[in-house]
């Protein structure tokens, strides 16, 4: 039987992939399976609607949504599904991603998006956040996530190298 995919990584454009890849990479490291889709709030609104409508029924437990500029994808997805949406503001050339950040962050009461930092750090943290949500019900994943966190902590030197 095919493995149940529990995390969706969606993005507004192919151009978002270099950022969103960081979410995919950390989920790979943690052994979490996921799917990736291009779903644009403006260019493919029907695809967005269908994805959101089917997300819970398909067993998704977290949706990582990245977009840049007028970044309406995460918020629109949150309006269509109760599956937790983790928003990643993609860095833009014109406004450095502050436009993306504000577009994703300022949701009205009732339809939350868990908004990460701008760019790759945000995408990586989105993957970790999704893993943390899944780990609540998956003890083996919880162990892997704890080990991942400990390894990161252990990799930080106590003293800076002098240049
Ligand atoms: C948004 O517009 C996408 O999320 C992307 O960040 C931005 C630019 O898209 P492209 O013009 O590169 O396709 O919808």
Structure description:
- The protein is of the alpha/beta class and about 160 residues long.
- Helices cover about 45% and strands about 15% of the residues.
- The chain is built from six helices and five strands; from the N terminus they run E-H-E-H-E-H-E-H-E-H-H.
- The chain has helices spanning about 15-30, 45-55, 75-80, 100-105, 120-135, 140-155; strands at about 5-10, 35-40, 60-70, 85-90, 115.
- Strands 2-1-3-4-5 form a five-stranded parallel beta sheet, with helices on both faces.
- Helix 2 (about 45-55) packs across helix 3 (about 75-80) and helix 5 (about 120-135) packs antiparallel against helix 6 (about 140-155).
- The protein is globular.
- The relative contact order is 0.17.
- The site of 5-O-phosphono-beta-D-ribofuranose has 9 residues, from strand 3.
- Its EC number is 5.4.99.18.
- Pathway: Purine metabolism; IMP biosynthesis via de novo pathway; 5-amino-1-(5-phospho-D-ribosyl)imidazole-4-carboxylate from 5-amino-1-(5-phospho-D-ribosyl)imidazole (N5-CAIR route): step 2/2.
- This is N5-carboxyaminoimidazole ribonucleotide mutase.
- Belongs to the AIR carboxylase family. Class I subfamily.
- It catalyses: 5-carboxyamino-1-(5-phospho-D-ribosyl)imidazole + H(+) = 5-amino-1-(5-phospho-D-ribosyl)imidazole-4-carboxylate.
């Amino acid at each position: 039987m095919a493995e149940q995919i529990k995390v969706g990584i969606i993005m507004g454009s192919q151009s978002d992939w270099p950022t969103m890849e960081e979410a995919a990479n950390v989920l790979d490291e943690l052994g979490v399976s996921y799917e990736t889709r291009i779903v644009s709030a403006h260019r493919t609104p029907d695809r967005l609607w269908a994805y959101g409508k089917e997300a819970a029924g398909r067993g998704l437990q977290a949706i990582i949504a990245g977009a840049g500029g007028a970044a309406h994808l995460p918020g629109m997805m949150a309006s269509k599904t109760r599956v937790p949406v983790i928003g990643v503001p993609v860095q833009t050339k014109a406004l450095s991603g502050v436009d993306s950040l504000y577009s994703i962050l300022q949701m009205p009461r009732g339809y939350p998006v868990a908004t990460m930092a701008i760019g790759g750090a945000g995408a990586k943290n989105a993957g970790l956040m999704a893993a943390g949500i899944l780990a609540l019900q998956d003890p083996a994943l919880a162990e892997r996530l704890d080990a991942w966190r400990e390894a990161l902590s252990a990799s930080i030197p106590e003293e800076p190298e002098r240049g």
